[in-house]
Amino acid sequence: MENLALIDSFSEFKDDKLIDRVTLMAILEDVFRNALKKKFGSDDNFDIIINPDKGDMEIWQRRVIVADDDLDLDHLEITLTEARKIEPDFEIGEEVSEEVKLIDLGRRAILALRQNLISKIHEHDNTNLYKQFKDLIGEIYTAEVHHVRPRVVILVDDEGNEIVLPKEKQIPSDFFRKGDNVRGIIENVELKGNKPQIIMSRTSEKFLEKLFEQEIPEVFDGLIMVKNVVRIPGEKAKVAVDSYDDRIDPVGACVGMKGSRIHGIVRELGNENIDVINYTTNIQLYITRALSPAKVSSIKINEETKRAEVFLKLEEVSKAIGRGGHNIKLAGQLTGYELDVIREGNIAEEEDDVELTEFSDEIEAWVIEEFAKIGLDTARSILKQDVNDLVRRTDLEEETILDVMRILNEEFNA
Question: In the CATH hierarchy, which fold is given to the domain comprising 6-131?
């Protein structure tokens, strides 16, 4: 019969889709019933028999036998003469089941069936894909680079699903080639029309938190909790960790011997500098730890305004602020307090000090800005620094720094 192996006639859909045979049969039945309703006005007197094992189906039409001159509804009734062509001993009032050939539906109906089947299978796949990835939001996922575009990288997973990694979700140092494996978290799944768009992120704090779970067994087992994560992707991050077991050093366990445990995470994030600190509910101690490596002299907290004045010796100020202001910015985000740095130092020296901007005729503005980024905005604050340390912490050449120090020394030695 023409209905045999219908699945094979639509094999391009079956083979390319993650859809089981039983589900495909159910979709087929639904599609054919719709076609029958359209052609005959109703599908009530039709039986569709599907064999999921063999991958075939049959359509049978049931009609009541009536006298030859009493035919009213030909899709529900059949004349005695026509019925006896099927079986000679049929009588009026009996029911006849007759197989409907696929070709009987007509060429146009068959084309419509095909298009409807495509639509139903796509709809099924998209619904399943949307549900599958909705459940994966916030989880690490790995996919292969399929195409690199200026504003987005298109990834494909092992099942052929397309995943989007937008430019703004990439770490600044990320560089991908076709075929590279990329890790990130599934951040969102959006419906674009009827098609789900899966968004991956490598800049999310959640990605760093999940990397801790993957790479550090104690975090995975729940012996160590990641309490908070803040980061400037590709630059610096701070992670607060805690443990219910006093015998476990959470920071030591996360960092490992000579940084062995955290090294893989740092490498994954493009050498992002990660500070791991012990979480505490003592806010003064928490802020002190968050501002590491700077040594804090004292802290004055205003609970109402969520601000804290942090008192530091002059030589500790630049460490607290950090390159580009990253350290103090992240410390504030981690603790939930706006941090104001108050310098401590020799009063006579401070009174004698000169703002760096006063030297704008002799020192270029961008050089002054480079020093300001690491908290050095006065002449004496720069002169107290080690030249090699300044080369490491700024984007300035040694020759430029020495020239600045010469200009500043002339001010105080004049």
Answer: N Utilization Substance Protein A; Chain:P; domain 4 (3.30.1480)
Length reported for the chain: 414
Strands (E), 193-222: 195-201
Contact 204, 211 (CB under 8 A): no
Residue 124: pLDDT band (50, 70, 90) is low
Give one DSSP letter per residue of 105-167, joined into a string: G-HHHHHHHHHHHHHHHHHHHHHHHHHHHHTTBTSEEEEEEEEE-SSEEEEE-TT--EEEEEG
Is residue 114 scored above 90 in pLDDT?
A: no
- Interhelix angle 205-215/260-268, rounded to 10 degrees, is 140
- Please say whether the beta carbons of 71 and 79 come within 8 A: yes
**Domain spans of the chain, in order of start:** 6-131, 139-201, 204-279, 347-413
Tell me the CA distances in angstroms from 90 to 76, 85, 86, 87, 192, one per residue in order. 16, 9, 9, 6, 57
Q: In 10 A of CB 388, how many CB atoms?
A: 10
287 versus 82: the higher-pLDDT residue is: 287
Domain 204-279 indexed as CATH 3.30.300.20: yes
DSSP 330-366: HHHHHHT-EEEEEEE--HHHHHH--BGGGGTTTS-HH
**Fold for domain 139-201?**
OB fold (Dihydrolipoamide Acetyltransferase, E2P) (2.40.50)
SS3 state at 253: helix
At 343-357, the pLDDT tens digits run 876 544 555 678 888
d(CA 27, CA 20) in angstroms, rounded, equals: 11
Per the CB < 8 A criterion, the answer to whether 1 and 101 are in contact is yes
Query: What is the spatial distance between Cα 15 and Cα 7, in angstroms, rounded to a whole number?
Result: 10
3-state secondary structure 29-60: HHHHHHHHHHHHCCCCCEEEEEECCCCEEEEE
Q: Which of 272, 49, 252, 76 is nearest to 174 (CA)?
A: 272
Query: Per mean pLDDT, which of 38-42, 113-117, 144-148 is the most reliable?
Result: 144-148
CA angle 272, 275, 280 (to 5 degrees): 150
Q: Which of 393, 167, 22 is nearest to 385 (CA)?
A: 393
Q: Give the Cα-Cα-Cα angle 251, 299, 231 (nearest 5 degrees).
A: 45
End-to-end Cα spacing for the chain: 108
